[in-house]
Amino acid sequence: MANVIKKTTRLTGLKVLKNPREELISCYKNIIKALNEMPDNAAYKRYTMATVNQRLTIVQNENDPSHIEQKIKCGQCEELLIQAQNELSLARRFLVEKPWEPLARQSPDNQWKWPI
Question: Which BP terms does GO give this entry (predicted)?
Answer without folding.
Answer: respiratory electron transport chain
